[in-house]
Amino acid sequence: MTEKTGGTPRVGCRHAGEDRTVVVLIDADSLSGMRVLHTSDWHIGRTFHGRDLLADQEAVLSGLADMVSDERIDVVVIAGDLYDRAMPAGEAVETCMRVLRRLRQAGAQLVVTPGNHDSAARVGTFADFAAAGGLHLRTRISGLHEPVVIDDEHGPVAFYGIPYLEPDPARQALESTGDRVPGAGAVETRGHAAVLTEAMNRIGAELSGRAEQTRSVVLAHAFVTGGQGSESERRIAVGGVEQVPGPVFDGVDYVALGHLHGPQRLDEHLRYSGSPLAYSFSEAAHHKSVWLVDLDAGGLAGVERRELPVPRRLATVHGRIEDLLTEPEHTAVEDCYLSATLTDEVRPIEAMRRLQRRFPHAVHLEWKPEGGRATAPLRYSEAVRGRDDQALADGFVADCRGAEPNESERALLAEALRAVRATESTKTGRRS
């Protein structure tokens, strides 16, 4: 078994003798079985530092339809966070529906579970009707042990969708349905590990009652131990430890994980696809991708990675503003989403507007003066003692910018303070 990032996929069959190993390579085109595309964390409707990403999201995700056709994908699984919020805007819903329609028209069945950003109830609306058209929405905790079964020439493949399980509500839901579910047990402890362990126990019990040749795929949205997070993920620790041990998911052929935004392999059968676009500058080094999972008669036959197009690269720059605006070495990042850290001793005025003249997609700005600025802790009573309103306002500007206000700025501050006093006097007169 080999893992590829591109090119013609090949599978290695290894036979070890007493003193030698024979490797037979077989073209994937000659293989039979089921091919699954694993993606997650679409976050449709998300913005990037105020920039609308809907067009970029639709372009990248619609390109998956071409992959479905070109790579002969049978099933697309989406492991949570379809949307960026529980009540997505109408434009986000329309974009999502267009993408899902294109994937279905390209020939793939779709299996979807909600993540911690989604509303399970909203994602699952009309689930029974959608299934008839090949869109399988697995959103109910009470039904997480009920698989979507899709056949290939080797027999059935059971797809189990575990919706995001917020620990306490999920614990109550699991306990309330325990007497009606084979293999169910009590959720003895709190936290994600406990509810996911119970979910996998129910899936294992259901799977054990199926024909021996049944292969299995589980979709889950969780932070599995060993995974590497980024700044754009919302924490999912609510009343307990957020990480879940990988062995919780043992016993199935493949686990399609969602939640972490970087593509990563925790075990051969246990992987995060990551998000299709970068949603924070901490993801600048990510190679956004999806996993192509091959299942043959014996189970997991191979996994390959396919990188996704990047609508606009992310870049960071660091230095004095005049250098950033003039140095030719920064030409290569002029069309990137840009995060700039300014090191000027004095905070530059209108820095973002000036930067955007050269870097139109500059979206994030920090000021970290070179050498840093010493700031001793100061109590409020000490900060205001013996200082009038003008001195306090001047001091505030100096602390924020690193330089005292000039004469014209002091005049503006004085005018603002006079206006505030006049307003307060008027209010006092009305009350009296």
From TrEMBL:
<dbReference type="InterPro" id="IPR004843">
    <property type="entry name" value="Calcineurin-like_PHP"/>
</dbReference>
<dbReference type="InterPro" id="IPR050535">
    <property type="entry name" value="DNA_Repair-Maintenance_Comp"/>
</dbReference>
<dbReference type="InterPro" id="IPR041796">
    <property type="entry name" value="Mre11_N"/>
</dbReference>
<dbReference type="Pfam" id="PF12320">
    <property type="entry name" value="SbcD_C"/>
</dbReference>
<keyword id="KW-0233">DNA recombination</keyword>
<dbReference type="GO" id="GO:0008408">
    <property type="term" value="F:3'-5' exonuclease activity"/>
</dbReference>
<dbReference type="GO" id="GO:0006260">
    <property type="term" value="P:DNA replication"/>
</dbReference>
<comment type="similarity">
    <text>Belongs to the SbcD family.</text>
</comment>
<keyword id="KW-0269">Exonuclease</keyword>
<feature type="domain" description="Calcineurin-like phosphoesterase">
    <location>
        <begin position="34"/>
        <end position="261"/>
    </location>
</feature>
<dbReference type="GO" id="GO:0004519">
    <property type="term" value="F:endonuclease activity"/>
</dbReference>
<keyword id="KW-0540">Nuclease</keyword>
<keyword id="KW-0255">Endonuclease</keyword>
<feature type="domain" description="Nuclease SbcCD subunit D C-terminal">
    <location>
        <begin position="311"/>
        <end position="397"/>
    </location>
</feature>
<dbReference type="InterPro" id="IPR004593">
    <property type="entry name" value="SbcD"/>
</dbReference>
<comment type="function">
    <text>SbcCD cleaves DNA hairpin structures. These structures can inhibit DNA replication and are intermediates in certain DNA recombination reactions. The complex acts as a 3'-&gt;5' double strand exonuclease that can open hairpins. It also has a 5' single-strand endonuclease activity.</text>
</comment>
<dbReference type="InterPro" id="IPR026843">
    <property type="entry name" value="SbcD_C"/>
</dbReference>
<dbReference type="GO" id="GO:0006310">
    <property type="term" value="P:DNA recombination"/>
</dbReference>
<keyword id="KW-0235">DNA replication</keyword>
<dbReference type="InterPro" id="IPR029052">
    <property type="entry name" value="Metallo-depent_PP-like"/>
</dbReference>
<keyword id="KW-0378">Hydrolase</keyword>
<protein>
    <recommendedName>
        <fullName>Nuclease SbcCD subunit D</fullName>
    </recommendedName>
</protein>
<dbReference type="Pfam" id="PF00149">
    <property type="entry name" value="Metallophos"/>
</dbReference>
<comment type="subunit">
    <text>Heterodimer of SbcC and SbcD.</text>
</comment>
